[in-house]
């Protein structure tokens, strides 16, 4: 029996296997509202064979979007659109669907990556004031953020709580708090971006104070009958950045709050960082270190996990309990189905697609050399 295809409890959820579709920004919403692109993107991932699909980083307020094309959950129209989208998906798939709640901080107000590789918006393009723990720009040619005061922090906590309420009403099964990739909560956690001298900067304890405050408010707002997790960085990939010992302490604090899983990523906070993102499993060490610190908590690994055998080895080794697939799922939306075949497990294609499976219709599976489709 493949461990990758063994069931796993995720808080109140029971997952059919250990494969998660990670949040992947599409930069294709209008005024924060998901549209037809999101319907086909999320719909095909919901029938991919993965155990969970998590919707992209979704702004809890307009100023918290990375780009004008980000999805949002700060108004009724966005909530209604997500409600319809989830209802449609659940008419043909029972895959749990989650959403990642986020605030981009100093990395907000940019173009999508396919426009000049992502740059700061100009005033003519609708640029807005960004915020951060300190008035330090991500890059010299980006906006200089305003340092948040306590009133501003209070408003952002309230925005996360309100977005959680909307996510619950829309019908999401899971919420993931985004505290990675150099966005707002990640900026507070790192000494490279957090230059504050008050109670929210300096020591690791102080730098964690605001992210933990958001995490606690979210834990109190999100129903215990649904799963709750957090994504955060294991490294800034720059000397003097967040230390792995701090990451382990942060993971212990989230576990003590009652978070159901921890999702380990890295980078994105310092523009000049040299990240070995082309190396398979380049972030696994961070997941493994957190698993050591909180062995009782479900830990999710992500980052260039590409082959079924590699994913199987991650679970079998105990480095992590779940694997998150991102780019591999964009390249092959049926990655999980193909992984099942590669690992000798039953393939569970939806009935309308089963004619492609030799396991369902022996002799007709296109993957096994058939060149004539059955039916039309």
In brief:
The protein has 376 residues and is α/β, with parallel strands linked by helices.
Explain what this protein looks like in three dimensions.
Strands 3-4-5-8-9-10-11-12 form an eight-stranded parallel barrel, surrounded by six helices. A two-stranded antiparallel ribbon has the order 1-2. The two termini are 35 Å apart. The longest helix has 21 residues, at 150-170. Mean pLDDT is 94; it is low at 367-376. Helix 2 (76-89) packs parallel to helix 3 and helix 3 (150-170) runs parallel beside helix 5 (204-221). Strand 3, helix 1 (36-46) and strand 4 (52-59) form a beta-alpha-beta unit. It has ten helices and twelve strands. It is globular. With 376 residues, the chain is of the alpha/beta class.
């Amino acid at each position: 029996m493949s461990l990758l295809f063994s069931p796993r409890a995720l808080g109140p959820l029971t997952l059919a296997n250990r494969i998660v579709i990670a949040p992947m920004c599409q930069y294709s919403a209008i005024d924060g509202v998901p549209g037809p692109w999101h319907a086909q993107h999320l719909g095909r991932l919901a029938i991919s064979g993965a155990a969970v699909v998590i919707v992209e980083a979704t702004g809890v307020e307009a100023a918290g979007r990375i780009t004008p094309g980000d999805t949002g959950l700060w108004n009724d129209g966005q909530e209604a659109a997500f409600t319809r989208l989830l209802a449609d998906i659940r008419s043909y798939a029972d895959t749990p669907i989650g959403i990642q709640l986020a605030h981009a901080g100093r990395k907000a107000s940019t173009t999508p990556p396919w426009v000049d590789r992502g740059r700061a918006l100009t005033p003519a393009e609708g640029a807005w004031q960004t915020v951060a723990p300190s008035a330090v720009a991500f890059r010299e040619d980006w906006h200089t953020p305003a340092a948040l005061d306590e009133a501003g922090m209070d408003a952002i906590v309230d925005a996360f709580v309100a977005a959680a309420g909307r996510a619950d009403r829309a019908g999401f099964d899971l919420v993931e708090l985004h505290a990675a990739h150099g966005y707002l909560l990640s900026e507070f956690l790192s000494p490279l971006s957090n230059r504050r001298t008050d109670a929210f900067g300096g020591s690791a304890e102080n730098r964690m104070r605001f992210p933990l405050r958001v995490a606690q408010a979210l834990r109190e707002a999100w129903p215990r009958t649904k799963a709750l997790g957090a994504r955060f960085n294991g490294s800034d990939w720059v000397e003097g950045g967040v230390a792995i010992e701090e990451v382990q302490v942060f993971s212990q604090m989230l576990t003590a709050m009652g978070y159901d899983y921890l999702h380990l990523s890295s980078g994105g906070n310092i523009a000049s960082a040299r990240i070995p993102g082309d190396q398979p499993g380049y972030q696994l060490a961070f997941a493994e270190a957190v698993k050591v610190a909180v062995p009782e908590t479900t830990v999710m690994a992500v980052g260039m996990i590409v082959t079924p055998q590699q994913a199987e080895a991650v679970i079998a080794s105990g480095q992590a309990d779940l694997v998150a697939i991102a780019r591999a799922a964009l390249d092959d939306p049926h990655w999980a189905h193909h992984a099942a075949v590669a690992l000798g497990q039953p393939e569970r294609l939806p009935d309308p697609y089963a004619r492609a499976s030799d396991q369902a219709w022996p002799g007709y599976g296109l993957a096994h050399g058939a060149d004539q489709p059955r039916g039309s």
